[in-house]
Amino acid sequence: MTCRVPRLVLASGSPRRHQLLRSIRVEFTAISPDIDETPAEGEEPVAYVERLAREKAAAVQAGIGDVVLAADTTVALGPQILGKPIDADDARRMLRALSGRAHDVHTAVAVRAAGRVSSAIARTRVTMVELTEDDIGWYVATGEPLDKAGAYALQEAGGLFVASVEGSVSNVIGLPLTVVSDLLTQAGFPLSRFRSAAPEP
User: Fold this and answer.
1) Taking 90 as the threshold, does the pLDDT of residue 196 lie above it?
2) Which of 72, 89, 135, 182 is an active site residue?
3) Which of 52, 74, 79, 101 is the most exposed place for a label (fewest CB within 10 A)?
């Protein structure tokens, strides 16, 4: 009787998380979890992302022996959670708030394996340049900020406005790869078990 090889199931529909895993040649199956992502009243940013990551890991159906990987990212300006803007005006508001200031990006990673869920959090400090109203108007018009936490994407055009990054860059994009590797190893499933030998096209 042969043993079934476990799959890595990524509980995310995020193209950015998909690309980060593909960049290190990890094979996975993606399933988008369906959970309520509304912050609880008074919930701190770190507690918020960790709760959501663990809920995402628990919400996805996977086969026996499969490993579920989930993550949630938020931008925090002090205690204020800056999620995805609801519209262009909200994106402008967020970008004005971030202009010329440092903020934190928190990503919680959760791994579900053998009936247990473990989690860890990465924090990166990002400083933005001073943004003019023309900068903000142009960037919002690209449409890029509308599906990004904090209304910007470091790895895309929003990188023009980032003055410095202290910590993991992949965390800001949405999946801190060193944290992923550590959690999977601790769960008994190092990334090497899911790596493809063939390069991505």
Assistant:
1) no
2) 72
3) 79
